[in-house]
Amino acid sequence: MKNGFRTILVPVDFSINSEVAIKKAIELSERGTLIHLLNVQLNLGLWASSSKYFVEDASNSNDDMVDQKMDEWKWAIEASGSSLTVCTWISFDNSVHEGIEKKAGSLKPDLIIIGKNSHHCWLPFLNTVVSSKIAERTGVPVLTIKPGSWYSKIKKVIVPVTSQSLQHKKEIISTLCDKYNVQVHLVTFMDENKPSDFQASSLLEFYQWMTRSIQCSVEYTVLHGHNRAKEILNYADKIKADLLLVHPKTETRIGWLNRQISDVLPADSKLQVLAVQRTG
What we know:
The chain is of the alpha/beta class. It has two domains: about 140 residues, HUPs (Rossmann fold, 3-Layer(aba) Sandwich); about 120 residues, HUPs (Rossmann fold, 3-Layer(aba) Sandwich), CATH 3.40.50. It is built from eight helices and 13 strands. An eleven-stranded mixed beta sheet has the order 3-4-2-1-5-6-13-10-7-8-9, with helices on both faces. Helix 1 links the parallel strand 1 and strand 2.
């Protein structure tokens, strides 16, 4: 992570969601990055997993159309001129969530990128994936993007500052500032009902670290309210932010139905959500 995103996992479902995720993977890659494309199909009583390099059960391999599309993307990415390498994987699992988490567990990527249009289950399967849960369970940063971010560059980044996942957020910020000329907006929260939750010392420490160590513009502010995700989203709209760097358990859920920030964003939104949490 300290040397950038050297290994990126991109789940694909052959929709516009997948295309925008692959485009973003190329954009975030370093020279020599390994990109893994993963297609998860529901396990109908069979158990199989295959790739272009490792075939565990050829009798259960996917049909030619899926293989052909994965090959097309592999060739297109490797021909992009960025010295990238691509591995393609097709797995059968009980759910898309399980398939992504298992592959993340074996590959140990630096980043997972998921493209989504909405949360409705009748749309392509990646729309049923809850990115924050994958980040929670695997400890791998998960970037969720909408088709609206196709032409969007990362310029303004919001970083909520609490006592959670600060070191991992610092690593992400270091990587982003090395790649882009970003403006970082640090935010902390003041809830009148829970004044003890105010993280002034954490905010000051993070701000001082950035001014000493990172060549990026940095500002800070205090948000008020008990629903952190809602306040973050309102602030993002106010400053026209491009990326939220959030903790998946405490900073992504809006409302009592536990809707995710990435699910309430419209398909044409440029706002990207990067969920970060260490495990263990």
